[in-house]
Amino acid sequence: MIWLERASQILDFTLFQLGGNPITVLHVVMFCTALVTTHFLARSVRKVLHRYLLKDLDDAPRYVIVRFTQYLVWIVGIAIALELLNVDLTALTVVAGALGIGIGFGLQNIVNNFVSGIVLLFEQPVRYRDRVTVENIEGQVEHINFRATTILTNDNISIIVPNSQFVNQTVVNWSHGDPRIRIHVPVGVAYGSDVELVTQTLLGVAREAEGVLNRPEAEVRFLEFGDSSLNFELLVWSDEPPNYHRLRSQLNYAIDKAFREHSIEIPFPQRDVHIKTPAPKEIVKLFREN
Fold first, then answer.
1. Interatomic CA distance for residues 185 and 256, integer angstroms
2. In CATH, which of 2.30.30.60, 3.30.420.40, 2.40.30.30, 3.40.50.300 is domain 123-173?
3. What pLDDT does 278 receive?
4. For 219-229, what is each residue's pLDDT tens digit?
């Protein structure tokens, strides 16, 4: 039929040549179809692994396996797509090497972040759902991607952090190993206060506070004789790192209430000023000189 012949002519029309190989409309169509198929296959693999094959694993190892499986699917899919595009992969390797020398300096940051992402997935110093602090940014790890990691803060703000920062800088991982953390609550009381009463009051607040662990036990330390106060520190343990700001606030409220009930004074900063009055002879001499 005439329309079949015309369609065949359109599909066989050569758009350009790459490495001596003609690239036709049919090659481009098959290339695009392979990429779309790879995209949907990668998504399907993620769903199957999450729901069926890896459902009994913890979040962190499951996340790593799913990520690398998706990377593998994309590598194979892109290779097949290039074959369908009638591209000689050996020649492409040579071209890629030549281009790499020319533009390598411009892609240093991207390559650095990509390699850092692989290091994060393999070594797992930071894992999916971990609570971390990096560059004064604190939040929960939501995604570890090719170039960057997404952190969700307590204010529900997603912050994109380059992967290289997790490898090259100091990172605080609140969830690494033992999830328990110790919270420090400083407090000062007026000079003359009963230090034993202060200690027992702080321990009582810790025992009654919700979210404070019974083991290890809470502790009170008498830190120093300050300029205006006797400085203490209440130390409590919690197994909920994301909520330590809230727990510290609750403890401060409870300490203020308990101190009022026991008449323990929290002093204002104060400074004593001594004024020296000159002797009468010095006053007379001062007036004569002026």
1. 12
2. 2.30.30.60
3. 59
4. 999 999 998 89
